Each structure stands twice: as C-alpha cells, then as structure tokens.
Amino acid sequence: MRNEEVSRVFRAIADILEIKGESRFRINAYRRAAQAIDNLPDHLEDRVRENRLLTIPGIGKDLAAKITELVTTGKLAYFQTLQSEIPMSLVQLMDIPGIGPRIAQLLYEEYQISGIDELERLARAQQLRRLPGIKKKTEENILRGIELFRGGLARRPLGRVLPVALRLVDYLREYAFLDRVSLAGSIRRNRDTVKDVDILGVSADPDRTAEAFTSLPEVAETLGSGQTRISVRLHFGLQVDLRLVKNDTFGAALCYFTGSKEHNVRLRELAIKKGFKLNEYGLFRQDERLAGGSEHDVYQALGLPFIPPELRENRGEIEAALTGDLPRLVTREDLKGDLHVHSVFSDGHDDLEQIARQAKELGLEWVGICDHSASLRIAGGLSVERLLQKLRAIREFNDRSPDVKLLCGAEVDIDRHGNLDYPDEVLAKLDLVVAAVHTVFKLDQSHMTSRIVRALQNPYVHILAHPTGRLLGEREPYLVDVPVIIKEAARHAKCLEINGSARRLDLNDVNCKAAKDSGVMLSIGSDAHRVEQMQDLFLGLSVARRGWLEARNVLNTMSYGELTRYLKGSSMQADQPH
Ligand SMILES: [Zn+2]
Ligand SMILES: [Zn+2]
User: Fold this and answer.
1) Nearest to 347 by CA among 382, 379, 313
2) pLDDT at residue 567, as a whole number
3) Residue 506: nearest ligand to its CA?
4) C-alpha of residue 466 to centroid of ligand 1, in Å
5) Fold of 249-322
6) Predicted ipTM?
7) Ligand 2 centroid vs 205 CA: distance in angstroms?
8) Under CATH, which number does the domain 3-151 receive?
9) How far, in Å, from the CA of 434 to the mean position of ligand 1?
10) Distance CA 246, CA 201 (A)
C-alpha cells in the first residue's frame, strides 16, 4: 500500500472523528500523522518491515500499529467500524465549501443526507433552515458552495494544491508512459490561489497513460478520458486535467496552457508584427513551423529571452524582455535563512535544536526565531523574563552550533494605537524585531494605517509581518492603505514581510513589486509553527518571484554576518533624525 493511501485513510478517519465530535486532540493526531506520512522520503512498507515507524514525527505505538495493519493487510478494522457509523459519502460532503463537520453531522442525523444531489434538493426546498443552528444565510451559503463544488470553481490556496500537484507530476513521470511532462496553467505560474491543475504531457501510449492516471489512489472520479485530454476529480474536489500533445508542439502548447491569457495575447501580437502566427501548435511562417518543441525556442524565435512563468501576467514583462531588462529572479539557492519561525518558547511545536536541524536540511544557514509577545496570551506570548531566558538559550545554542546560527527575535504585537508590546529597552536587546497586527482588525482605513505607520516609526522594528492580515479564502485583508505603508517603510528603512504560510502569502505579488519599486527591502518568513512548515519559505519565494524580486531585494539572501550587521545598522540609522 502506497504512502498516499495510508495518509488518505488517516485523513478520512480525522474527518469522521470530526463529524462524530470527538476530541480535537485525537482528530489532530490523525491529521498530523497524515501530513508526516506525506512528507516521508521513503516507503512505509520498508519502514514496517524494518520496524522504523516510531521515528516518524507524530507516530506513536497506536498509530504505528494501525499503519502496520493497513500496509500488511490492505485494510484497517478501526476504519471499517467508523465507516459503518458514518458513510464516506457524508464525509465527502465536507469538501463542499460551507459544510463543516457540525453541519455534516446535523444533515446526517436529521435527514440521513449523504449525497450532494439530495443536499441540493433540500436546500432548494428551504428545508435545511428548519434544522437547529442553520439560518437562511447558511442555507444560501450551502447552495453557493454546491455550485462552486460542481463547477470546480472554488479557488484554493497554492500551498494546499502545489504539493499534491507536484506529487502527481512525479508519479506520472515515472509510471504513466510519458516522455515529457510539466505542470501548466496558473499553478505553474505559482498564482497564490488556483482553481484546478493543468498538466501537459507527451505520451508514448495514450491509452496506458490514461489507465495509469485514472487509477491513481488520489482520483475519486474520471470526468473524461480521450486521446488528447484526461480529466479527473480528486478526493478533495480538485479537478486535474492531463493534456497530451505531440513532442514537436510541446513547447508551444506549454506556453499556451501556462498563460496567462493576457501574456499570450501579447505574444501573438508580437508574432503577427513579425509576419508569423503563434498558436498552441507552434510558431509558423505560412506553413513552416519555426518553433514549437520547447518554450525557449518559441520565445527565441519571437526575439525574446525566456520569460519565467511567474512573470507571465502582462505586467510589463514583455517590454522588459524586449529591452533586456527582465529581473534576474531570486532563486531557492539564494536563500540563506528564514526570518520568521516560532519555537516552543511560544506556540511553536519544536525546540531550537529541531529548528536548526530542519534549517540545515533545507540548506539554510540561519533562522530568526520569532515568538509571540506578552499580550498575545492565547499564542503563548512571552513575558519579558521568558524572552530574556530565550535570549540566553539562543546565545548558548549559537556558541555550540557551528553551521546554523539562530537570531533571537520576537513577533511583537502592535496594539490598536500603534504601540509595541515590549518596551524599547527590551527590543534593543533583540537581534530581530518583527512587528505585527494580530488583534482589532476592524479599524477604519485611516486608523489602521496610522496604527501601523506608528509601529514602523519605532527605531527597533526591522520588519512588518503579514502586512495586510489576509487569510486566503478565509479573511479579507484588513483596511489598510498599502501604498502609504510602502512609502513609510521606505522612509524608515524597514522591511516588509512576505509571509509564506500557506494560509497567508501576504504581501501579495503586486504589492511586493510596488515595494521593490519604492526601494523597500522584502523579507520572507515561513511563519512555521512546526518544522515541517518551514517548507513554506519556498511558497513565500514564489510570491517574491511573482513580485519581480531579485536577490538584492530580499533580506534572506544575506549571509549571517551581513544580516546581523544590516539589522544592527538599520536600528541605529533609524535613531537619526530624517
Ligand atoms: Zn503573526
Ligand atoms: Zn508568526
């Protein structure tokens, strides 16, 4: 049994437990285990054989026994019992936006609903609002959710979809008789949310490719299967299209299906000006194909350098390409550290050693440990006394750590008036001060803006974290005048953060470019609360690249020595009158 199948069973168990209203602790244990399994570099089967399950983070004796049962017998008695109580079709209803475990449970208990058609019928007949706790508004939301689900229209955060998509591509490359394969569409451009996943391939045997693709364990339903296009829906509702093209048109098709539409319109105009024709089959002069096999060839034949997918939004990239002014985008290799990681000192899960080890594994040289400040009690905010303990712990750690250095930072709360949560003399002791809004989101724009500007004026602040407070698909940005924030950040030599957390990606790409154009330095922070989430640094990187950033615009590209000098210098500089 493949790792993905095991993690899928664990996720289904978590969903069922959630519907049953079981303890958070148990539910999370299954979710965490599923995630840990997804992150494994090797096969569970080998680990079972070699008795190495307990070294997986989050896997204790009980879960290890369940994994062993699944892997060796292909079944899990516990899961079967649960399924006899709660049908899987009900669990799948939770994929519909607007249906959480509470509502799913209610639907099942009151109406024994377990299918989407039945649900829609009852919602349209206004029968749902008769249930306790379901209002007219809830019912309308459910109907809209059904529509979104049916149309596959719900946009999902990049960070939730990209790992799945990359796994699919890896699998297809290996097992699906494809000579070439690539992601395409908005996910290849790393847009912050994506609607569906487009994959492009060249197949030696389309029938066997279709067979391999549609029989993946992730696939819930085959929507269509032909010689040039195979569409499936995954268990969590996401639609994935695999298009098959000929080898000599792969580059042109990749360009075409990667988009954006606006970028492609500009490319076609350029082709026409040269007397050519560009479409998904190639670049042609009359009937002669000038290019098509690779994207590089297509761009070159148009007189352009290769334009990285992240830039293809018609935001000036064609002009820049024509004049040789494309940015040399910051890369993964450029990143030397992570500027925003939580530890056990506040609400993080892992200690300094674990964080440093993960950093090393990710190829990083330093990490800014930023725990919450005192007033954020629900997130384990640190008293001044604890903060000073942490400072000592980090100094000691650095003395004995030859390769990864830690910076003692804090994610300091900005109160509603723009005051910081620690006094200046405490902030002055820290290596890194990241200021952030976590409370009182409902201020009007002028108050919110001046609140944040006030924090930026504090000489000890280095970075403004998640500057607009948005949560993808959950919470709109708070009302803040971003251009003013950018201007003030430039004036006081402060950095703005690209928070890489899968839920946030804040600043977004457009604001990121505006900040760069105003001379503001950007910092990328994973905002990890567990070491596995430090991967989100690279999601933040995708925003940086979409925001046209080069290495010199990104604080994370500095060596430890450069960074500490920069941080010290900027707080001293800010002391001077402007
Ligand atoms: Zn925060
Ligand atoms: Zn944070």
Assistant:
1) 379
2) 96
3) 1
4) 7
5) Beta Polymerase; domain 3 (3.30.210)
6) 0.98
7) 49
8) 1.10.150.110
9) 9
10) 8
